């Protein structure tokens, strides 16, 4: 491994072993470089890489700190991998998304709070208005779609699952936009599917929620069959 890799591995190990915790300030550059046995240049490169990964954050004039190590933030770089692998294969990406989100819906049905259900319903009511106005506000409808799915993922009780779902949203956001702009009635069909998912969640019915989510995402996959290969 390069010396930069040594820095990255060493700091990750310190976090895993509990020597560094979320919010902790890293030792000053000279001291940390000496303790790791690397040059200050290699240390800076390693810190820069860890910053891009969401592991550390540097505050100008104050030092470098361990972030909150939020799972969603740490998994965010996977979004690029998803987009890269999904070029021309959006269906493959959506298949994985379906597996993840069906599990999230199943788990959320028994965990989602009344407040979250109310938030989700308010979003769907807003979507009803956005779809009904001429012309439909596609950008807002897509944003509501994203927020609706995030509420479900956030109440799955599994932050790793929620983080993975968020990472897989990048490619499918573009696909949803394509559907909205090119398929007659796509917005309304998606909205009706969301309402069915919400009703299953409100009924606290895990299996029904899973089935409704699967039906919704299978519909998305069928639409993706019409996407150009190089999209």
Walkthrough of the structure:
With 231 residues, this protein is mainly alpha-helical. It folds into two domains: 3-69, Winged helix-like DNA-binding domain superfamily/Winged helix DNA-binding domain (Arc Repressor Mutant, subunit A, Orthogonal Bundle), CATH 1.10.10; 74-224, Up-down Bundle (Four Helix Bundle (Hemerythrin (Met), subunit A)). Helix content is 70%, strand content 3%. The protein contains twelve helices and two strands. It has helices at residues 3-16, 29-36, 40-52, 71-75, 78-85, 90-108, 114-132, 138-154, 159-167, 169-182, 186-202, 206-224; strands spanning 56-59, 63-66. Strands 1-2 form a two-stranded antiparallel ribbon. A hairpin with a 3-residue loop joins strand 1 (56-59) and strand 2 (63-66). Helix 6 runs antiparallel to helix 12. The longest helix is centred in the middle third of the chain and has 19 residues, at 90-108. The protein is elongated. The chain starts with a helix and ends in a 7-residue tail after the last helix. 28% of the residues are buried. The model has no long low-confidence stretch (mean pLDDT 88).
């Amino acid at each position: 491994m390069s010396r930069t890799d040594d820095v990255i591995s060493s700091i990750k190990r310190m976090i895993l072993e509990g020597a560094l915790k979320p919010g902790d300030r890293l030792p000053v550059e000279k001291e940390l470089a000496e303790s790791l046995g690397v040059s200050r240049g290699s240390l800076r490169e390693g810190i820069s890489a860890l910053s891009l990964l969401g592991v550390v954050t540097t505050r100008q004039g104050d030092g470098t700190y361990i972030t909150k190590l939020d799972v969603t933030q740490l998994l965010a770089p996977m979004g690029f991998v998803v987009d890269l692998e999904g070029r021309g294969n959006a269906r493959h990406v959506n298949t994985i998304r379906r597996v993840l989100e069906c599990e999230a819906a199943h788990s959320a049905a028994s965990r989602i709070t009344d407040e979250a259900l109310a938030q989700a319903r308010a979003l769907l009511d807003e979507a009803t208005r956005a779809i009904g106005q001429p012309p439909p506000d596609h950008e807002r409808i897509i944003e509501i779609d994203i927020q609706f799915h995030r509420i479900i993922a956030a109440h799955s009780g599994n932050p790793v699952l929620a983080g993975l779902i968020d990472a897989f949203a990048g490619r499918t956001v573009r696909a949803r936009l394509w559907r909205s702009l090119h398929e007659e009635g796509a917005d309304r069909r998606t909205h009706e599917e969301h309402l069915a998912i919400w009703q299953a969640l409100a009924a606290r019915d895990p299996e029904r929620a899973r089935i409704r989510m699967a039906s919704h995402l299978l519909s998305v996959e069928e639409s993706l069959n019409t996407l150009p290969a190089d999209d």
